[in-house]
Amino acid sequence: MLSALAVAVAGGLELAIGEPPTRVHPVAWFGRVVGTVDREWNHPLAVGGLAAALLPLGAAAVVGAAVALAASIGPLAAVALAGLALFLTTSLCNLLSTARVIVADSEADLPTARDGLLALAGRDASGLSAGEVRSAAVESASENLADGLVASLAAFVLGGFVAAGLSLPALPVAAGAAAWVKAVNTMDSMLGYRSKRVGTPAARLDDAVMWLPARLSALLLAVACGSPRSVARARAWLDGVPSPNSGWPMGTAAAALDVRLEKPGVYVLNPAGKLPDAATAQRSVTRVGVAGAAAYLLSGLGVYAWF
Question: CA-to-CA distance for 193 and 184, rounded, in angstroms?
Fold first, then answer.
């Protein structure tokens, strides 16, 4: 019951606040620590491996210890802090609102839409057509469902389940697990580029960590879109996607909405379809929101039923 309440706290804060300001966001603070690793090293893989091993563990230890300390005050204090920690490792409402604005701007003011896309997708938008901008918004919303929400929720549930099985306090371990996953994902987003050898260990770790959340997100999207077969259809297009994980929710969205999603020069999902129009892109963003709400609900039910 306490763990389910923590999930409810996180969901309530997401609806009420959406995204804390960057200056007070612990993920941004962690990012500044990661930034100290982002430079040239004589042995970049060794440094990167050490950072990938220690920095996420440090984040998890801080969060887990804080929740454990709150538990010594009382169970509701632990619930509140664990819920806050889970909220800070997730993002949904801000993702949805940003994607909706970009899609709307793609019809009314294409240069503004291209500029806004920088908040979602790490690609050069200067030469993108309106349809390609909308495609990028749909792709990013679908991919970030996994990165920004499902991964942390799944870690919270699995961490608490393992803790309960080992007779450890569930809330500190669950919150620490969510923080660990978010830290791994943050390191990958900052360092996981081919040009940064120091980021290779973090990128490979993120690939492993995101394997399950990406596929869970694809299933949630398929259900939210009322197209259960879209996950199977997406498999045919995934070979061209560089990431072993991000193609699953993106491909599922392309199949469920029967649209072409494309990163020019990199990959094409559902090549027989057309680029999304504004109405279809907005519908896709809404479906991501439905899938996100389902993720919260299933997480709360999961922790309530298991521990």
Answer: 14
Tell me the residue length of the chain: 307
**Amino acid residing at 195:** S
Q: What is the pLDDT of residues 201-220, one digit of tens each?
A: 999 999 999 999 999 999 99
pTM over 0.90: yes
Classify residue 237 as left (phi > 0), alpha (psi -120 to 50) or beta. alpha
Give residue-wise pLDDT tens across range 11-63: 999 999 988 988 999 999 999 999 999 999 999 999 999 999 999 999 999 99
Residue with tokens 């994902």: 185
